Structure formats: C-alpha cells, structure tokens
Amino acid sequence: MTAKRLAPAGRVPRVLWLPAALALALVTLPVVGLLLRTDYARLPSLLTSAASLHALRLSLSTAALSTVLCVLLGVPLAVVLARSALRGVRVLRAVVLLPLVLPPVVGGFALLYTLGRTGFVGYLLDVTTGIQVPFTTGAVVIAQTFVAMPFLVVSVEGALRATGEDYERVAATLGARPSTVFSRVTCPLLLPALGSGVVLSFARALGEFGATITFAGSLEGVTRTLPLEVYNQASVNIDSAVALSLLLIVIAILVIVVARPRSIEGVRA
Amino acid sequence: MTGLHATLRLRRDGFALDVALNVPDTGVLAVLGPNGSGKSTLLDCLAGLLRPAEASVSIGGTDVTGLPPPERRVGLLRQDPLLFPHLSVLDNVAFGPRSRGSGRQRARELARRWLDEIGVAEFADRRPARLSGGQAQRVALARALATDPALLLLDEPLAALDVDAAPAMRAALRSVLRQRQPGRVAVVVTHDPLDAISLADHVLVLADGQVVEQGPTRSVLAAPRTGFTARIAGLNLVAGEAGPDGLRVGDQLLSGVLAEDAVVAEPAVAVFPPHAVSVYPRDDAPHGSPRNTAPATVGSVEPHGPVIRLRATADGQGWTSGVAADLTPAAVADLGIDVGSRVLLSVKAAAVEVHPANP
Questions:
Q1: Predicted local distance difference test score (pLDDT) of residue A137
Q2: B228, B243: one domain
Q3: Helix spans in chain A (H)
Q4: What is Dmax (Cα atoms) for chain A?
Q5: Looking at beta carbons, which residues of chain A come within 8 Å of B147?
Q6: Is A164 on the interface with B (CB under 8 A)?
Q7: Predicted confidence (pLDDT) per residue in B74-120, tens digit
Q8: Does B120 lie in the same domain as B202?
Q9: A179 CB near a chain B CB, below 8 Å?
C-alpha cells in the first residue's frame, strides 16, 4: 500500500539536478584544483622537511590525545545528558553544542581569557601550581578537545536516547547487576555510535585552526600543528603549503572511509 | 504462602495505581484493560523496575518488596522482544543464567535446552537482526524462561506480531503456561480477551489504575459485571467442550468453525460478536431455520453506541445464557422487546469461532 505512494527510484525532480551538481562541484573542484597545483616531483622532499614532520607528529599526537580526552569526558557527559532526570538537562544539552556553532577563533579567545594568566582559572593555576597553560602543547590539546567534544557527545547521546533504557531494564530482570548491565549491554550497544563519534572528533581535532592559533600560538614543534603549518608556509613556500594540504586531504579521506557508512550517514547498527 | 501476592499503591503524574492481587502457585493471571489503565505499570512494579511508595510483593513465599529486579527471580517479556542486538540468539538466552552466576558452558547448555523447548533451536547462531518478529519474540520467551523465573511477566507478548506470526507464539506461550510448573506463576497483560481465554485461568480487569473486576476467566468475561468489562470483552463467550463441528454446551450443540488448535472433546470457548446474533419472538421461529436457534429471556436492554444491546439472563441453560445481541432501536420497537421478554436467539454458524480454552 505505502510502496505505491513512493516515487519510483530515479525520478528525482529535474529542477534539483542543477543546484545538486553545483553543490557537488563546490565540494570536489577545490580538491581537484589542489591536486593540479601540486608539485609531485618535490612532494616527498616537501613532506619530509623537518618543519612538516614536526607538524605532522604534533598534529597526530595532539589530535589522538584530544580524542582520548573527548571519550573519557564526553561519554560520561553523554550518559548524564541522556539519562539524568535533572531539570536543567535541556539547557545543558544546548550549552554542550556551543563549540559546534561558535567560530573557533572566538572559542580560542574564550579559552585564553579563562585559562590565560589574566583569566580566573589560569590565574589560580599560576599562583597555586605555577602552571601556565597558553602557548603550550597542552593548550593545543585543550583547544582541540573544546571544539571536538560536541561531535562525540552528540553521537553517543543520540545513540543512548534512541536505544532507550529498555535493554537495560530487560537485562536487570534477567538478573544482571548494574555494573554487568553497563559493561555487557550499555557499552556494546554504544560501540557503533562511539566509533563514529571518535572518528569525527579526531577529524575535527586534526583540522582545528582558529582556537589553536589564538589560544596556543604557532610555535614550531610545540603548538604548530599541520593546519597552522599550512598557513605558515603559504606566505613562505607555497609548494610546501600545497603539499601539506594534500596530506590533510588524504587523512580526511581516510577518516571518511574508516567512518563510513555508519557515522557519516548517521545510521545505527 | 506460595504463589504471587501483591498490594501496590503508586501515585505519579496524576495517575494512581491501587491493586491487590493473589495468584496461587502455577496459576496464570490475565490483566485486561484499555491503554493507560496501568497494566504495564503494574508489571513494572511486580518486576521491581518501579518502586511504589506503598507496596508489598511476595513471590513464591519470599518477600521481595525491597529487592531490585536482579534479585526478584522474575522473567519479563514485552511487546518488543528487545533481544540484545550485539549477542547471538544463543548468547541472548544464556545472558540470564550467566548473570545469575552460571559458567559460560553451563549457561549455553541451558540456553540450548530452552531454545529447543520453545522450538527455535535452529536460530541459535543467528544475530537477532536476522530473525522475523515472531521468531524474535519466541527467542525472547526462551530468554525469559532460561532464568527459571518464579514469576513470569508477559506484557502484551502478541500485540506487535502480525496475523501470520501470532499463532506460533500463542502456541509457544500456551504450551509453556499449560505446563503448570510448580513454583511458577505467570501474569499476562493483554487487551485481547481471546488471549485471556486461551492462556489464563484468572483475569483481573484494570481501569484507571483500579481493579474493576477479578475472578475466573470465563465467568468474568462471559458474564461481565461491569459495563467496562463488557465493552472491552465486547464478544459473546460461551464455554463448553469442542465437538467435531462446533461447541457442545450441556445437551445443545452450537455449530461453528473450529480454530486450528481446537481439540475435540477438550474444553473450548465459542466466540461470536453480538451483532451476529438475531432475535425473534418466541412464537415466530425464523425461516430457513438456522441450526443455532435457542430460547432465552431478555435480562437487560441498554443503548450501546448507535445500537441497542440486549443481554439474555444468565440462567445457565444452554448457550444463550448471558449472550448479548445488538439490534437497531427500530427493531427493538417492532419486536416489542423489554426486560423479561421471552425470545429466540439465533446465530449463523459461520460467525461462531470455537477456540480451545484454558482447562
């Protein structure tokens, strides 16, 4: 009955084709442009320069660390947001999305005036422990975690809310204690969403620029991650900037391949 | 004090549940009621998923009032089978025994036995996603039974199944519930009176969180004492014994269509809607003489939506005892029917279904 009312496959209204093709061109043509502009002969030497390797190593390690932080902090937050009966939870849920919609530069400033020496948390840290956060590798990790966390929280919380608590209730009636329920039911059910959340937040952390440059600066080997190095090289050695951009594109494609199809298409297993 | 004994008072969001129930050991209680009457809430309270302010629940002689669900020895089967999607069918069923302390091997053995018992052993290695709705629900039944529950709670176990899948599940439920296993009590929530007839020996009818009627299944459903029960039952139920082509009630035969699982000479119930019953004056036997015609006395005449529903007096004489018939207001006026009128009731054999009844 319902099948009859669906338009047969392939009959998309013609009027949509032109804007769809334009959208696709907008996404793919710049990549093609970059590929055409790349100096393939010098690619290996450009990518293995000391500055590039520093940036690559720093990017991978900080993005990995931020992703771990996102999981350690984001999963509990997602569970609280999804399962807590507190009144303010809806407001909290909106607040968590803030880094997603905020321009990263603004986020960087916000971090700077909180954790910087004049910020209230930064000042306290400085006088009590002598730790200064801004312009350190730690600041890079914090900036990346700040912008990447919502991706993880949103996917995990969405999965928790979609699954509901029925599986947990059934497990409880079957004799499973709360810790068993969490490890044998809740966590396995979360894995697909957690996997996609991890991939997305890693990708977001890797691409982070605005908050990092504002809060952590651009010091080679300390805070200058790949995107910052691309920006830096653009004014010095454009071939190197293009080569590094290509590297970031390759990593991005890998991320999409690994995360597909579940995370990108938002389908639960 | 074996069996299930519970007193529950729960108040939340303007809803109040106030139920006292007693089910003897090996008994099966059907809980009937409309949506929102508190049926599922009642089950959640018995399972320990909800803790009412005032409650006392004892299962199989143990007071479980303060105990959380894992310590209550209950098995819960809902409308949705809720098989854990990340575990194979076998491990789903083994989950309960594992959680209650059995080793992996022992739990799997138990699981295999129960899958076999319910007739779904062939799916043991499948993922739940590769089962049909009916198969998944039978696996869920095996999973609930594998923990050897003292209280089996079934929350509309047939409601989500389509017409083709329901009979296998109903048969599985019936065979489980008919075993009358000592030390086990079952509570089945349903909105289908047929389920209550075929599965339960007692019914409890809930409305707005209150018990409006309670008693042996057939006497409650066949002779509802409240309009509410009559509305939800809505069908004529006549108890008797299945015959080769109908239902034997005393020395009368009510011709009808036997359900596939009805067995001749076993207890059965004939079911037919009130609008299938025709009414004639006592001195004017119908032409063509349908086989199912018998005398009755009108016990009540009440408006029922757009029609008038007559109910024969429950005199225990033959199949017309307590039977309801729907007539148009004009027909009632033409026939001059009133309480106490003596009439003939007639029902077409094709409208009468004969289902096996719980003994």
A1: 94
A2: no
A3: 2-5, 17-37, 43-47, 50-83, 89-96, 98-101, 104-115, 120-129, 137-163, 166-173, 178-181, 187-207, 210-215, 226-234, 238-259, 262-265
A4: 72
A5: 174-175
A6: no
A7: 999 998 999 999 999 999 999 999 998 889 999 999 999 999 999 99
A8: yes
A9: no
- pLDDT value of position A206: 92
Residue B76 with chain A: CB contacts under 8 Å: 169-170, 173
Do B127 and B177 belong to one domain? Answer: yes
What is the separation of C-alpha B235 from the centre of its chain, rounded to a whole number of angstroms?
A: 13
| Closest chain A C-alpha to B147 CA, distance in angstroms | 7
Percent of chain B with pLDDT over 90: 31
The answer to whether the CB of B33 falls within 8 A of the CB of B191 is yes
What domains sit in chain A, N to C, each tagged with a CATH number?
39-265 (1.10.3720.10)
Segments of chain B scoring below 50 in pLDDT? none
- Find residues 128-147 of chain A whose CB sits inside 8 Å of chain B: none
pLDDT of residue A252: 84
| Residue numbers in chain A where pLDDT is lower than 70 | 1-10, 259-269
Residues B206 and B228 in one domain: yes
Among B41, B72, B92, B95, which would you mutate to test the A interface (most chain A Cβ atoms within 10 Å of its Cβ)? B95
* Contact check, Cβ <8 Å, B70/A176: yes
Q: Scanning every residue of chain B, which has its alpha carbon at the shortest distance from the alpha carbon of A190?
A: B86
At B113 the pLDDT is 94
| Residue in A closest to B100 by C-alpha | A175
The rounded distance, in Å, linking the Cα atoms of A215 and A220 is 15
Q: Which of B46, B67, B84, B145 to mutate to test the interface with A (most CBs of A within 10 A)?
A: B84
CATH assignment at residue B260: 2.40.50.100
CATH number, domain with residue B80:
3.40.50.300
Structure tokens at A267: 């389908």
CA–CA gap between residue A60 and residue A47 (Å, rounded): 15
Same domain, B253 and B158: no
